[in-house]
Design a protein that fits this description.
The structure is a single chain. The protein has no helices and 10 strands. The chain has 111 residues and is an all-beta fold. The protein has a single domain, classed as Sandwich (Immunoglobulin-like). The strands form 3 sheets. Strands 1-10-9-5-6 form a 5-stranded mixed β-sheet, with no helix packed on it. A 3-stranded antiparallel β-sheet has the order 2-8-7, with no helix packed on it. Strands 3-4 form a two-stranded antiparallel ribbon. The chain is globular, with a radius of gyration of 14 Å. It starts with a strand and ends in a 6-residue tail after the last strand. The model has no long low-confidence stretch (mean pLDDT 92).
Amino acid sequence: MSDLETVYLNKDNVIALILKDNDTAIDTSVVTRATLRLGHALIASTNGATDAILWGGATYATGEIHVDLGGSTLIEAGVYTAPLTIYSAGSTNGTVWGNIKIRVMVDPETT
């Protein structure tokens, strides 16, 4: 997770990631919670189907998650190094999967 990802506030830009352990995509069906810290804002998802961090979609590849920050009112424009933490029954304290480098931009259609 080293590339700089760009999202725009109020837009549908999604960051798609494949979570791997020892080069093998993980089974996201065991995920119970996911969090992403952007500065002072903590984006938390406990429902992999409708929250800002999504997993387990019918068309998702094994290990695939989506981070949808465009609708968040918790974050501001800026560049963040955002740690992604994944929780499951086997990892109730969470496992930090690494940092996502994210550039959050203002909506280009607003003045």
